[in-house]
Amino acid sequence: MPVSSTKLVRVSAQDIADHLGVARPTVSTILSGASSNTRVSEELRLKVMDAAKSMGYRPNAAAKAVARGKFGGAGLITSVDRKRSSLPPDLLWGITQALEERGMHLLVAALPDEQLTDDNNLPRMLSEWMTDGLLINYNKQIPPAMSAVIERHAIPSVWLNSKREYDSVYPNDEHAGRMATEILLQAGHRRITYTGNLTRHATHYSEFDRRAGYEQAMRAAGLELDVIEPVMFSDEANESRQYWIDRLQAEGRPTAVVAYGRSTLEPVVLAAERLGLEIGWDLSLITFADWPQKLGRKLDTVIIPQQAMGRKAVDMLCKRMRHSGGASASVALRAEYIKGQSVNPPRV
């Protein structure tokens, strides 16, 4: 009598074999899809497949993975310290979509350093998690021992948003900084200020590379650099806002500002509003973000390619898993410029 598909007990190949009176190895061969290479008749193949469907047979994914030596999944590692592992929604979306297209699963885990630097723990996690490789989302203060463990055990891995020589994918922030500055130069600005991270904790490579891009564009135009150093301010927003109020009232003030990100942009906007300056006319602004920014009006934004980074990382990881061994060259992705209402020719 056929086993009901609503039965809670997992139906096995042996159950199907007993039901049909066929040898279990024959059933296993048919269910694995390998019967085309054997002398199994088409009639028997169809009979086994029909019985499997009616009985509610589901393949044992874990057993198949063990047999193949592959799990069809990737692990995404982040730090328990959120400041060290930014995970933007578009980055995660790019990863999940790329894996889904390949029929792969994703496991996400936030782990403390001691687990990631243990010489035995990290390799063991791959089999326990049923994953074939790692996407490593450590952006700042990467523990050297963690990199050493991965290299020593030749774990297939790709680093996200981390500027490394091998096995990483990251935004080309130097090009982004240069592009943002050149947009202001093309609009006719000559007094352009760059404002970086307004804290004392500039540790991500982008904080240096965006500034480097700005400096390259300004030097190429034969113009004087005007950089607001990160160490100039504490973490207090009031201090940076007051600085910009004073700066925007001074003689020879900037007509345009390149801002590292939203947190560095807001004090400039608040100061301009206090002084009655119209953003986009009295003061042009351009910034960097994962999506177009808006502070009162749509801002000119250099978009960091988070989704593309996630997709590229999966592509690189799959290639590493197929061809175990040597590392692959890192990939730097170029940003995209989205026109807003905050960049116009200077009035002063």
Explain how this protein is built:
The protein is α/β, with parallel strands linked by helices and 348 residues long. 42% of the residues lie in helices and 15% in strands. The strands form two sheets. The chain has a six-stranded parallel beta sheet. β3 (133-137), α8 and β4 form a beta-alpha-beta unit. The chain starts with 12 loop residues before the first helix and ends in a 10-residue tail after the last strand. Residues 1-8 have low confidence and may be disordered.
Q: SS-based structural class?
A: alpha/beta
Number of helices, where a helix is a run of at least 4 consecutive DSSP H or I residues:
13
Strand order of the largest sheet: 2-1-3-4-5-11
Main beta sheet: 6 strands, parallel
**Mean pLDDT, as a whole number?**
85
Question: Mind telling me the C-alpha Rg?
Answer: 28 Å
Helix content: 40-55%
Distance between the termini: 89 Å
Instruction: Give the strand content.
Output: 15-25%
Task: Show unreliable segments.
Answer: 1-8
The counted number of beta strands is 12
What's the overall geometry? elongated
The helix/strand order is HHHHEHEHHEHEEHEHEHEHEEHEE
